Amino acid sequence: MTPEVHYARLGDAHIAYQVFGSGDLDLVYVGEFWHSIEAQWDEPRFAAFLRRLGTFSRVICLDQRGSGLSDPLPLGEQPSLDLFTDDVRAVMDAVGMARAALLGVAGGSMISCLLAATVPERVQALVLLNGFARLTAAPDYPWGTTPAFEARVMADLSNGWGRGVLADVLAPSEADDPVFRSWLARYQRFGASPGEVLAQRRMMQNVDIRQVLPSIRTPTLVVHRRDNRLINVGHGRYLAERIPGAEYVEVPGGDYLPFLGDVEAILAPIERFLTGTVATTDQRHRSRGAGTAPQPRARSGRRRLRGALRRTGPRRALCARRPGSCSTAWPLPARRDPHGRGRAARGRDRGDRRAHRGPGGGPGRPGRSAGDIDRPRPRRRVRNRLHRSRRPYAAGSPRALEAVCRERPVALRPLRTMSRTMRELGNKPAHSHSLDSAWPHGYRDRHDASADLG
Predict the structure, then answer these.
(1) CA 345 to chain centre
(2) Nearest Cα to 415, choosing from 453, 444, 384, 441?
(3) Are strands 13-20 and 57-62 parallel, antiparallel or unpaired?
(4) CA 438 to CA 435: how far, in whole Å?
């Protein structure tokens, strides 16, 4: 189930966010600037990635202003890191999180680093996934993007945004999959408009937070993919070297999107860093709470007997409940319901249970042996058939009898018994209606004639 969308207020702006997961740790997932908390659940691997985070933490995902379901930026205002850090703090305040771990992905890593440096009392731990401190290359930063690459990216964003552009660098392993490209196009459209994503790209081209890194004192983990085509692995190594005490994990793969490829190679170090251990598969299933299958509750003896009656019929169920109480050898054939519904008639079930109450039978009732269970009871069978008929006729009426006989042809002997039963019913006082008044013309003659055939 997709988590519910909530909105945090920051002045006149509304910031969309979701909360999910069952862990004790609070974790804020800070995605790239064109992230969409709504479209992320449409990709099964992305949804599985997020739910895996939710097995050991309570996760908050948000759309920064200018992206996704949040309000757009005011006309003429340019995106900035200070604006986005305010969005994260507003969402944490709305949820009631005094401190939380931050998981910054790509551009979200810059927001996370600024928060860890400026408000360290609110950042419990810092995880940077495919992050960078500066996007473009510089003389002392050779692994940044080149001007030619940035020109190509800006052209693609301007001309093809919302149609799955840049799939060859975002997800080279899935670039030829039309289903994935269709989702990527939708994710881009839901994440930002072409004008917004172009403004965000220009902002990243001019931002440099390298001077902030040495002031980070929060425990930090840097995870980067070795063959990442969009964010070179040199970015991750630089972060790990400049942040004091940072741990660095380099994983194989070339996809920029973290939920593709070997996902466990990314998630396992993150879980170990944040919780101190990595849960097994069974432990993760148990920790999902509402996502786990409900445990069967304990069943009383009456409920167990009722279930056995539905599956096997009364005789076999009673013999299984009380071994040795039946005189017939095991296994016993299941008794069929005269209506063909797969369960015994209620009247016969009551009779069988009374027969097995013990020597002497039930209170105020003569004892019956186990062999009497198989004795035919045509009248009871007829009455059950009449009263349990699903036809919209009064129980016991001649029309109900006609419906039963027309629905299931019977032998002459049961039909003769039905005739006697109907005579007895006809001689008794009517309760809510008169049988004689409802008797169809000529029905007595036809019915008695059929009874005389025997």
Answers:
(1) 39
(2) 453
(3) antiparallel
(4) 5
* Tens of pLDDT, residues 145-187: 999 999 999 999 999 999 999 999 999 999 999 999 999 999 9
Biggest CA-to-CA distance, the chain: 113
| pLDDT tens digits along 351-410 | 444 444 444 444 444 444 444 444 555 554 444 444 444 444 444 555 555 555 555 444
Look-up: residue for tokens 């148990």? 286
- Round to whole Å and give the CA distance between 151 and 355: 90
- The string of DSSP codes covering 342-358 is SS--HHHHHHHHHHTS-
Give the side-chain half-sphere CA count within 13 A for 157: 19
What is the spatial order of strands in the sheet that 5-10 belongs to?
Answer: 5-10, 13-20, 57-62, 25-30, 100-105, 123-129, 220-225, 247-251
Report CA Rg, the chain: 37
d(C-alpha 226, C-alpha 252), whole Å: 5
Task: Kindly state the tokens that stand for 77.
Answer: 């205002």
Q: At what angle do helices 264-275 and 44-54 cross, to 10 degrees?
A: 20
Q: Which residue has the tokens 């810092």?
A: 126
Q: Which residues lie closer than 8 Å to 450 by C-beta, 6 or more apart?
A: 412, 415, 419
- Please say whether the beta carbons of 67 and 194 come within 8 A: no
The owner of tokens 């003769």 is 416
CA distance 144 to 215: 22
Residue 103: name the closest of 170, 48, 169, 54 by CA. Answer: 54
How deeply is 11 buried, as exposed, middle or buried, from its count of CB atoms within 10 A (0-12, 13-18, 19+)?
A: exposed
Q: Which phi-psi region, left, alpha or beta, contains residue 153 (left: φ > 0; alpha: ψ -120 to 50)?
A: alpha
This prediction has a pTM of 0.64
- pLDDT band of residue 309 (cuts 50, 70, 90) is low
Looking at the DSSP bridge assignments, the partners of residue 250 are 224
Q: What's the CA gap between 440 and 401, in Å, rounded?
A: 12
Give backbone dihedrals phi and psi of 15, rounded to 5 degrees, phi first.
-115, 120
Print burial letters for 319-351: b (CB count within 10 Å at least 16), e (below 16): bbeeeeebeeeeebebbebbbeeebbbeebbeb
On whether the CB atoms of residues 270 and 219 are closer than 8 A, the answer is no
